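User: We ran a pulldown and think these components assemble together. Before we commit to crystallization trials, I'd like a predicted model of the whole complex to look at. Sequences follow.
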Amino acid sequence: MRRTSFAGMQCSIARTLEVVGEWWTMLIIRDAFSGVRRFDDFQRSLGIARNVLAGRLQTLVDHDILERRRYQERPDRFEYRLTPRGRDLYPVIVGLLGWGDRWATDSDPAPPVVLTHASCGHDVVPELTCPACHQAIAPQAMRWRYAEHVPTEHRLGHRGVATR
Amino acid sequence: MRRTSFAGMQCSIARTLEVVGEWWTMLIIRDAFSGVRRFDDFQRSLGIARNVLAGRLQTLVDHDILERRRYQERPDRFEYRLTPRGRDLYPVIVGLLGWGDRWATDSDPAPPVVLTHASCGHDVVPELTCPACHQAIAPQAMRWRYAEHVPTEHRLGHRGVATR
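Assistant: Here's a predicted model for the assembly, 328 residues in total across the polymer chains.
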């Protein structure tokens, strides 16, 4: 079910999607953040075929997003835990969650999930802010440019395209 | 190429992926944020078949992520612009970009793209912070629960699954 490989694109977004761009993959990661660890629990949560789930989990282990740990011997039983590389996907999960809460809740009375920041105890919607001035980020206030080390022929979308 | 529909899941992440979970879709949105507006420019940037691109753009217009605007008459020419609903995907794009910069740059000397916060003039990596205490969010510090209005039978991953 793989499409064209994006790994060769000199773009961090394309390379991330190469690893985690598949839908079930993101929902497996969502479940892992919510505390799911065991094969049968992922399977119940996702309602996905066992062979498909096994393949997706293995891919995530191969990419060092999840690690497979034995938690019981005789019989051996394993669980799947997020690695540091996997945990670092949290901003993507929060971004998907926030957008869905704002734009895709259909007729629901309110977002289905409430997040709490344990450090301060408040129920919050995490926001994207600027580490220099600490203001919330508005997309219109952001500019981008290629770093100097990127060769012209690897610059995407810039063959005659005006940037903002 | 559609998989199982996630629209029925009472989960904002699944519902967002239902709209924007397809790889090309996210790269089209990436290009739109970088200033690409015209069909031929999307096509050059993505190297995607024209009929596939036309289908993806139409889907994004149908979902009110992009709007199609006429910018020239005789002959009519159109461009694609992000709607407010589309612009609100910026945190997801930044999340994907940041993860790729940290974990998927291969042997590159540095991230290929530099973001500048025009409001304050600094080159920054936007970060996820708590709007209550203004600290950076660590995934381990976040807890979640279902909102009270979510019926038990719609709670995913919670049939016997311990939460953290």
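Confidence is low (pLDDT under 50) at residues 158-164 of chain A. That may be worth checking against your pulldown data before setting up trials.

User: Thanks, that helps.
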